[in-house]
Structures are given as C-alpha cells and as structure tokens.
Design goal:
The protein is an alpha/beta fold. The protein has nine helices and nine strands.
C-alpha cells in the first residue's frame, strides 16, 4: 500500500497574510503543495492564471459543478471558488501533502469528505492590524474593506470547527507554528503505519528464537 499524504485546510480573514505564510511554508518544507482553486473572481494585476487561481467564467464554473469536478466550492463576496477533486485525490495518492486555502464553508464540506483532514485557522493580532493590512495592499475600495471587516465577525464564529489556531503577529513565529503543525501531522499514527508497514510487519512476526 502506498503512502498517503495529509490534507491541510487553512482558512483566515482576508488580509491576514495567509497566502504569504502558505507560500513560505511550501518553499521551505519539502513534500507539500498548494491546491490552485478555480474562481469566477476577476484577476488582479499581480496575479497569473494557473499560478494564483484558475480564472474561469460563470458558465464554465457552473458546468464544472454539474460534472462534479469540485471537491468543494463556495461563494465569497459574490464570486465562486472551487477545489479540483481529481487533482487533490491524485496528489494525496502520490504521498504528497496538500494545502487547501479555502473559507469556512469549504472547510465544512472537506471535513465531511476527509474527516482526517487537519484544519488551521489564521488570525490577525487585532482588528486595527487587519484594517491596516487591507488598506496598505491597495487592492480593494473602502466599501469592500468595510465589507471584509464585517465578514470577520461571521467567520470567527466558526473558529471552533478548526483543529489549530495560529496568530500572525510575528511572521517568523507564525511560519514556525505552521511548520510544526505539518510536521506533527506526518507523525500521526495512521500515516506512520502506512509509511512503516514493513518495519511493523517485521516486529510483529519475528520469532524470539531467532536471537
């Protein structure tokens, strides 16, 4: 039986620094990759198709739903986001860990399909800090920023549905926290049993008179 990868779900309010943290995690830790979501949201100037997201039309997104191409999908700020079922399943089957950067709605769907997934919620150190980050990145109109701040109140109600909580106050400390969580996940009993099947078989069948 081949080794299976772990599925990590990471959620956070917009502007918390989740994407930057995940990018650094993947760059520094081998054997883990990020699922690239499909979205109907317009592409921002610094984004690239197939790198940040797969940008698709509303019609194409609906067709993908009809064909059951998504492992999960959700609507956030009037735009749709979905995770490719086939890509995730094939990547996990190769023994590679997968990160899903999705909202709480998607996390709920994933937890039903993959009860063993490891979920992480990233929080900003304060509302003021979050407002400053959203303003400095200069991507959204003031009304959108207010909408995102208001959405934080809704999303934080679901924090109890996650296994871990990381505060992104100091970037290095937050990155270390994420790294520890991933490394601990690789030591969980089900994965260790698969990874060390030969060793366990040997220990279970060795006769004492062999020594």
């Amino acid at each position: 039986m081949s080794e299976l990868g772990n599925l990590y779900v990471i959620s956070a309010p917009s502007g918390t620094g989740k994407t930057t943290l995940v990018k650094s995690l993947v760059e520094t830790l081998p054997g883990i990759t990020v699922s690239i979501s499909h979205t109907t949201r317009p592409k921002r100037p610094a984004e690239a198709h197939g790198v940040n997201y797969y940008f698709v039309s509303e019609d194409n997104f609906q067709k993908m739903i009809h064909h059951e191409d998504f492992l999960e999908y959700a609507t956030v700020f009037n735009y749709h986001y979905g995770t490719s079922r086939r890509w995730v399943e094939e990547t996990l089957a190769r023994g590679e860990d997968v990160i899903l950067e999705i909202e709480w709605q998607g996390c709920q769907q994933i937890q039903k399909i993959f009860p063993s997934c490891i979920s992480i919620y990233i929080l900003p150190p304060s509302v003021t800090d979050l407002f400053n980050r959203l303003t400095k990145r200069n991507q959204d109109h003031k009304d959108i920023i207010k909408q995102r701040l208001a959405d934080v109140r809704e999303t934080t109600h679901h924090i109890g549905e996650y296994d871990y909580v990381v505060i992104n106050d100091d970037f290095s400390a937050a990155l270390n926290d994420l790294t520890v969580i991933v490394q601990a996940g690789r030591l969980l009993q089900p994965r260790q049993i698969i990874k060390n099947a030969e060793l366990l078989s040997q220990l279970e069948t060795t006769e004492l008179d062999e020594f």
